Amino acid sequence: MPNHWQTIKSEVRVSNPWWTYMVNVFKTPKGVEGEYHIIKTRGASMVVPILPDGRIVLIKQYRYLPDRYSWEFPCGQLKENENFEECARAELEEETGYRASEIINIGEFTPYNGVVDEWCRVFLAKQLEEGKAHPEATEEIEVGARRIDEIDCMIHTGEIFDGQTLAAWSLVRTHLNG
């Protein structure tokens, strides 16, 4: 049953290289009018790298908003004129130093669909070649590898708390042995 809202007016309030903050005036099919605040992005790619021994590569980095370190899968927003796979490959190399001969699109999700229009696409990276990471100036990243059972444990103990990593793991977990 379609329930399409009509956009009456759309206004950009703030724009930067990562996202655009907009306010839309809308009308529902029942005639109710209101304001909707939206953050628009180009999208993001998250990569789950698998080593030949079956361990999964994660990164640990400081996150400013929760003021703590977070174990996550490599992830980043698409740059202008970049597609999801290009972004996945670039983030993998930038944050871990690894390059993948094989990269498989597993699925996608919306991280916060009531506020952000972003889609995050999840990739498995296989046949990895180790190299040197080159994180952005604000990123302090530690690269680590964990077995599947260790990642499950890190989730249950709260050591992995990043929502995008949790969503990606739920998509990827069924594709892994163990």
Question: Can you characterise this structure?
Answer:
This protein is 18% helix and 42% strand. The chain is α+β, with helices and mostly antiparallel strands. It folds into two domains: 6-40, no CATH class; 44-175, Nucleoside Triphosphate Pyrophosphohydrolase. Strands 7-4-9-8 form a four-stranded mixed β-sheet, sandwiched between helices. The protein has a three-stranded antiparallel β-sheet with strand order 1-2-3, with no helix packed on it. Strands 6-5-10 form a three-stranded antiparallel β-sheet. The mean pLDDT is 94.
What is the tally of beta strands?
10
CATH first level of the largest domain: Alpha Beta
- Along the chain, the helix and strand elements come as EEEEEEEHEEEHH
Radius of gyration, whole Å: 18 Å
- Portion in beta strands: 35-45%
CATH topology of the largest domain: the name is Nucleoside Triphosphate Pyrophosphohydrolase
Q: Roughly what percent helix? A: 10-25%
Alpha-beta classification: alpha+beta
Low-confidence stretches: none
Assigned CATH architecture of the largest domain = Alpha-Beta Complex
Give the name of the CATH superfamily of the largest domain.
Answer: Nucleoside Triphosphate Pyrophosphohydrolase
End-to-end separation: 41 Å
Bulk shape: elongated
If strands are numbered along the chain, what order do they take across the biggest sheet? Answer: 7-4-9-8
- Major beta-sheet overview: 4 strands, mixed
Instruction: Count every helix, treating DSSP H or I runs of 4 or more residues as helices.
Output: 3
Number of self-contained structural domains: 2
Report the mean per-residue pLDDT as an integer. 94
